[in-house]
Write a structure and sequence with these properties.
Elements: E1 2-9, H1 16-24, E2 30-37, H2 44-50, E3 57-60, H3 66-76, E4 81-84, E5 89-91, H4 96-107, E6 111-119, E7 127-131, E8 153-155, H5 156-162, H6 173-184, E9 189-200, H7 209-225, H8 234-240
Parallel strand pairs: 1-2, 1-4, 2-3, 6-9
Antiparallel strand pairs: 4-8, 5-9, 6-7, 6-8
Helix pairs in contact: 6-7
Length: 249
């Protein structure tokens, strides 16, 4: 199975090289690497061009934000499986993608998710939160569950059949997309019980109280645009689930 890994960048010079190295260092996989840049003004493209021979598609042009750039990458992808790795995240070891392929092969599923570490921005060996996803149970989204999107790999046909990211969202299009394909369309899921991605703390939706409130409003909108009704407690449980992540190591 061929895997297309998409990385979106914008002024990501401080972290991009680690991301790139974690992708091109993957072993025993048929890999296509797609890097979509939003016209960075720092050294992002200088770093990317150091590894140009390992990057299948390198696009640098103005976009309408993160999700628009991801959609561009999806359109370029020729792999059987699509992975998304942001420019401040990285894979935890060189066998990560081969482990995903094994789950896809063994289970014939449509998508596979795993576990994730949130780490300190400057010291990525320092774990801040541990997101252990657990095995998916039907209607888990109603109980505030979701898998960590950076660990979520889906077959290309899932995007072809059910659509890409909804650009009316600014911070929760990944949640809306997973709600759409998992909860509404009930695609077949596989779970890889290991930490596959390290993600630096400080994500867009969690930087300020204003952004947290906005993210919660977008979560509610995600249900509405899909014609779904959450339970009264669903959108309260979703952020509360994060509390336990601070106590897992």
């Amino acid at each position: 199975m061929k895997i297309s890994v998409i990385t979106v960048t914008y002024n990501s010079a401080a972290t991009l090289e680690e991301t790139i190295l974690s992708v091109i260092g993957q072993k025993s996989v048929d890999l296509e690497y797609i890097l979509i840049d939003g016209l960075s003004t720092d050294q992002t493209l200088v770093i990317a061009n150091k590894y140009r021979d390992k990057i299948t598609h390198l696009v640098s042009e103005k976009d309408k934000g993160l999700y628009d750039a991801l959609n561009k990458g999806i359109d370029l992808a020729s792999g059987d499986i699509i992975a998304i790795l942001h420019s401040d995240d990285f894979y935890t070891h060189p066998e990560v993608l081969s482990h995903y392929v094994k789950v896809f092969t063994d289970t014939s599923c449509d998508a596979v998710y795993a576990d994730l570490y949130y780490v300190n921005q400057d010291n990525t060996d320092k774990i801040i939160r541990t997101w252990i996803s657990g095995t998916y149970k039907r209607d888990a989204f109603l109980r505030g569950w979701m898998p960590p999107h950076p660990t979520f790999l889906a077959k290309k046909h899932v995007y072809d059949q059910f659509g890409k990211f909804d650009l009316s969202f600014t911070s929760a299009a990944d949640y809306e997309w997973m709600l759409r394909v998992i909860h509404k369309q009930n695609i077949r899921l596989g779970y890889l019980p290991e930490v596959t991605v390290k993600m630096r703390v400080g994500g867009k939706s969690n930087q300020t109280m204003h952004n947290r409130v906005k993210a919660n409003m977008e979560d509610r909108k995600a249900w509405e645009v899909n014609g779904l009704r959450p339970k009264w407690y669903t959108l309260y449980l979703k952020p509360l689930r994060k509390i336990t992540q601070f106590f897992k190591r």
